[in-house]
Write a structure and sequence with these properties.
Layout: H1 2-14, E1 17-24, E2 38-45, H2 53-63, E3 73-79, H3 81-86
Parallel strand pairs: 2-3
Antiparallel strand pairs: 1-2
InterPro entries: BolA (IPR002634), BolA-like_sf (IPR036065), BolA/IbaG_stress_morph_reg (IPR050961)
Family: Belongs to the BolA/IbaG family.
Organism: Marinomonas balearica
Length: 102
């Protein structure tokens, strides 16, 4: 849980989040038990206002530059508060892993 805690800490400092959900999805992939390799991030912030999707991703990747070296995958779902409300306060479900036997 060390990497997950690092990610939460960095994002909490870098963004004024009205909602932040970080889910370790590693257990759904073909990796050793207890791995911290695959994460799903849902982040809602006014910091994303007037930013294109690629700019939002760049903002997160820049903030997490050190942590990205430690993980394999990070699914990003980044919204403004208005976009989040329009989505019914829900991020899309993650697809099943296609890279292994799980």
């Amino acid at each position: 849980m060390i990497v997950e805690q690092e990610i939460r800490g960095v994002l909490g400092s870098a963004f004024k989040a009205s909602y932040l959900e970080l889910f370790n999805e590693s257990h759904t992939h073909n990796v050793p038990e207890g791995s911290e390799s695959h994460f799903k991030l849902t982040l809602v912030s006014d910091d994303f206002s007037k930013k294109r999707l690629v700019q939002r991703h760049q903002m997160v990747y820049t903030a997490l530059s050190e942590q990205m070296k430690k993980i394999h995958a990070l699914a990003l779902h980044l919204y403004t508060p208005d976009e989040w409300e329009a989505r019914g306060n829900a991020a899309p479900l993650s697809p099943n892993c296609h890279g292994g036997s799980r």
